[in-house]
Amino acid sequence: MFAVRIQREPFDAVAESAALAAGRTDVGAIVTFTGLCRADAGPDGAGLAALTLEHYPGMAEEEIERHVEEARRRWPLTGAIVVHRHGRLEPGDPIVFVATASSHRAAAFAAAEFLMDWLKTSAPFWKKEEPAGAARSGGWVEAKASDDAAADRWRE
Amino acid sequence: MKVLYFAWLRERVGLAEEEVAPPAEVVTVADLARWLAAQDEAHAYAFDNPAVVRAAIDRRHVKPDSAIAGAREVAFFPPMTGG
């Protein structure tokens, strides 16, 4: 099973993961990653009340699907699920979920990291910060060079 | 063609999308950004630092020197911060 979903609603990481093994006996490894909204972000460490995630409908799905296809070319995966939320999310809320399944763990670990690294830098999502306290207005989160470097590691 | 803006480019332009008909000498994505920037103050503000603006043609990432011929949808946005 291979699936990419962009949604406002929360996701159930356990149920998503279980779906990768349901009805089959060739899956030996499932690696899951869940990204959460942190409170310690925010301008000058002032703390965050919420993040609002904007996305490019259509391209967000297609761009992640292209990287899932690339992951399938590189590793013998039996399945992969990527779920990315949009809208207003508060600290503690899950934002993103990546699960990869394979017969053996090495492929599942590598593919999960590959998908997350590319998702951070090439999936069309943008985060706007809503600082704790009403005193200041929020700004758009800037892209990090360390995320570009993480994605660049996978270039052939 | 349709032009889309996201995140702070959308806020600066004041529009999420617009229909435009650039003249024939607008050939590349970079040409289109320069042409849009010349439309009014809001567009000029959005494109005041073209080096940080990313683009997609028909939902695929492209470089500034990519040709816009045949494009249905050109999107401009800042570097992505998902995940």
Automatic annotation (TrEMBL), chain A:
Record's keyword annotation contains Transferase: yes
Enzyme Commission number(s) of this protein: 2.8.1.12
SUPFAM superfamilies named in the record: Molybdopterin synthase subunit MoaE
GO BP, one annotated term: Mo-molybdopterin cofactor biosynthetic process
Record has Signal as a keyword: no
Region (Disordered): 130-156
InterPro entries tied to this protein: MoaE_sf, Mopterin_biosynth_MoaE
Pathway: Cofactor biosynthesis; molybdopterin biosynthesis
Highest rank taxon of the organism: Bacteria
Residue ranges with Basic and acidic residues bias: 144-156
Gene Ontology MF term list: molybdopterin synthase activity
Keywords per UniProt: Molybdenum cofactor biosynthesis, Transferase
Reactions catalysed: 2 [molybdopterin-synthase sulfur-carrier protein]-C-terminal-Gly-aminoethanethioate + cyclic pyranopterin phosphate + H2O = molybdopterin + 2 [molybdopterin-synthase sulfur-carrier protein]-C-terminal Gly-Gly + 2 H(+)
Family: Belongs to the MoaE family.
Task of the protein: Converts molybdopterin precursor Z into molybdopterin. This requires the incorporation of two sulfur atoms into precursor Z to generate a dithiolene group. The sulfur is provided by MoaD.
Subunit and interaction comment: Heterotetramer of 2 MoaD subunits and 2 MoaE subunits. Also stable as homodimer. The enzyme changes between these two forms during catalysis.
The protein's name: Molybdopterin synthase catalytic subunit
Species: Xanthobacter flavus
Automatic annotation (TrEMBL), chain B:
Pfam families, per the entry: ThiS
Listed InterPro entries: Beta-grasp_dom_sf (IPR012675), Mopterin_synth/thiamin_S_b (IPR016155), ThiS/MoaD-like (IPR003749)
The protein's name: Molybdopterin synthase sulfur carrier subunit
Organism: Xanthobacter flavus
Record lineage: Bacteria, Pseudomonadati, Pseudomonadota, Alphaproteobacteria, Hyphomicrobiales
